[in-house]
Fold Endoplasmic reticulum transmembrane protein.
Amino acid sequence: MTIYYSLTFLLLAAEMVTFCLLVFPLPYTIRKNIFRFLSESLIVAKVAYALKISFIFVGILFMDALQRMFRVTAEADMLKTSQGMQDVRTESSVAARKFYAQRNMYLTGFCLFLSLVLTRTFYIILDLIHTQEEYAKLKKATANSKNTAGKEDQSKQIEDLKKKLADSEARSRDFENLKKQAAQQATEYDRLATEFNKSNGLVSDKKAD
């Protein structure tokens, strides 16, 4: 295997390990910190830029391997249909070339495919984390609004009770004042009635013999 296909294989292995780490069940806090670091770090951004360039070269290798496979397959079919193909070494050589062409095509193809899967998985999990954060904020805000509304209702009820109590106390004071005024008016009425009777001689003074 040539050096660039060996590097492609190492890149494919690294992608497989990264994918396993992405889908590994981690606690929410740890996962959030890891993805926040990966999405905000400048070093990770530079590494991602370098990987994009490397995937361009992997794409070129994939196209070259695909062309080689088509060419070797056509050559093998042509040799099979020819009448003079009786050499075992030629058959082995063609079969080996076909095998290497297919191997290189699958290697580079899976590397490109897994890069797309990794990118999509990363952004899906990142969106999920952001959605969970927004849900937590919304839940907290809803709880705070409920508590505030409950406190406002309690304050309103207390104010209503205070007003009712003040009205009751005012009515009680008015009733006491009315009772006092009625008693004073009754006493005054009795006094006036007694004086009136005395002035008209309606009161008889009887002395005992």
